[in-house]
Amino acid sequence: MTQTMNRAFSPEAVQELGGPAWLAEKRASALELFHTLALPTEAVEAWKYTDVSDIDFDALKPASRKETVTSEEQLPAGVRARLGSTDVAGYLVFDGPDVIFKNVPADLSQQGVVFTDLRSALDSHAELVQQYLYSVVPAEVPDDTTIAAPGTTPSKSPDASEGKFSALNAALWTNGAFVYVPRNVEVELPLGSFRVLDESGTFTATRTLIVADVNSKVTFIDEQDSEDLESAFAFGAVELIVKDGAQLRYVSVQNWGRGVTHIQRQRGDVARDAVLNSLVVTMGGSLSRTEMQSHLRGQGASSEMLGLNFASKDQHFDHYTLQHHAAPHAHSDLLYKSVLADTARGVFSGMIKVDLGAQKTDAYQKHRTLLLSSEARNDSIPQLEINANDVRCSHGSTTGPVDAEQLNYLRSRGIPKSLAEKILVTAFLEDVLSRVPLQSVVKYIEAVIAEKVGAV
Predict the structure, then answer these.
(1) Residue 245: how many CB atoms within 10 A of its CB?
(2) Cross-referenced Pfam families, in alphabetical order (predicted)?
(3) Distance of CA 220 to the CA centre of its chain
(4) How remote is the C-alpha of 275 from its chain's centroid?
(5) What's the pLDDT tens digit per position in 365-411?
(6) Would you put residue 52 in left (φ > 0), alpha (ψ -120 to 50) or beta?
(7) Residues near 80 by Cβ (< 8 Å), separated by ≥ 6?
(8) Helix/strand/coil for 106
(9) Distances in Å between the alpha carbon of 174 and those of 117, 119, 199?
(10) Quick check: pTM over 0.70?
(11) CB 77: neighbour CB atoms within 10 A?
(12) Of 115, 209, 360, 419, which has the most beta carbons under 10 Å away?
């Protein structure tokens, strides 16, 4: 077993996190796995184009604990700005490892909706948390497993990716959002979580758990933001459980400052006739690796997976996706758009996997990349693994530069180059943005794009 001298990754650190006995056991098992697994290298297929060998766990310390605040006026300026332009029914604000502010309207509780931070839920809703936590992103199994139905044992699969990082999160997560929507309840406005970082040389491990019970409906917006930092690490895990006939829309907007390394695994478990709509937006950080998986385990399940990212300067963005069809008559549709400028690097690896017996599968996967610089580089690996004979599956990927004729046309009309590029980039991303019914999120994304191309 590989050992580390850093107390932040020791059994003592896990014990100090507290919690019930069952959670302590899960954490201890995950910590052991973390120390057993080596860092993934470029020799591992899933990490062929992304090098994380320079992560020095011995040099990392956990982000310091934060005090709660009593009003919105005391929140970080960036969070206040987002709250002022986002329509949410309730929200949580996390600074590093701690929730520092909650705004949860009473009418949510009156409907039976549980919306709180995960550590509080361990006390107030212990049975719910124990039932669902680690059921979609497991704590005790290595990274060659697939998603299983909540409460069952995962089955083996070759979709290995970031097992060491998932084990780290499972062992050392400090807090995150917990949402439970009871059966037949619809939450009209989105719920939100806003996370910030402000310390160099530190790491945070956060976990989000969202459960949409039978025939329920909810939207959740998960945003991450920080100033530029010398070095910081955000290790995340997101578990999305969508039961029979339920609808869940999950939006992740990552806009960390330079110097932040972001590694997050997001998995959705979609039951019979349920719908999971996900949007993954990556704009910030120096290195970002995001995995989004949808496991369609119920007949008639549906998953829409949207993604867009804009990398500039020397940013490196890696996205890994899995559309796992385990039941017949299920539908999945993936559309990811990437924009790369300067010397940025983009990686996309997407798999459609159809299990034996998952007949009448209808699955689509499309990834397109726009290059704003001849020095930017993109690697795209779309893949199919089909084990049923009555399916309709397609995948494709394109990479190309800005259309010179279109750019020249705009410039000939007196439009500056930066603004012309902003117009073309926004048009390129439009077919993703047009499928997002959250206008405040769309406007925020467009503002970040404008800043990246120097049009503001």
Answers:
(1) 20
(2) SUFBD_core, SufBD_N
(3) 12
(4) 17
(5) 999 999 999 999 999 999 999 999 999 999 999 999 999 999 999 99
(6) alpha
(7) 72, 73
(8) helix
(9) 10, 8, 16
(10) yes
(11) 7
(12) 115
Confidence of residue 1 (pLDDT cuts 50, 70, 90): very low
Burial-class residue 2 by CB neighbours within 10 Å (0-12, 13-18, 19+): exposed
Report yes or no: 387 and 393 within 8 Å, Cβ to Cβ.
no
pLDDT tens digits, one per residue of 64-101: 999 999 999 999 988 998 888 888 999 999 999 999 99
Spell out the residues 6+ positions from residue 155 whose beta carbon is closer than 8 angstroms to its own. 145, 146, 148
Which residue reads 């020397």 in tokens?
314
Phi, psi values for residue 363, rounded to 5°: -135, 140
Q: Is 326 left (phi over 0), alpha (psi -120 to 50) or beta?
A: alpha
| Mean per-residue pLDDT, 283-301 | 97
Give the 3-state DSSP-derived string for 386-446, with helices as H, strands as E and coil as C.
ECCCCCEEEEEEEEEECCHHHHHHHHHCCCCHHHHHHHHHHHHHHHHHCCCCCHHHHHHHH
Mean pLDDT of 283-293: 97
Residue 114 in tokens: 């549980």
Q: Residue 225: in which H helix or E strand, if any?
A: strand 217-226
Helix, strand, or coil (residue 159): coil
The Cα–Cα gap between 378 and 348 comes to 8
Q: What angle do CA 101, 102, 106 make, to 5 degrees?
A: 155
* Separation between Cα atoms, residue 183 and residue 245, nearest integer Å: 9
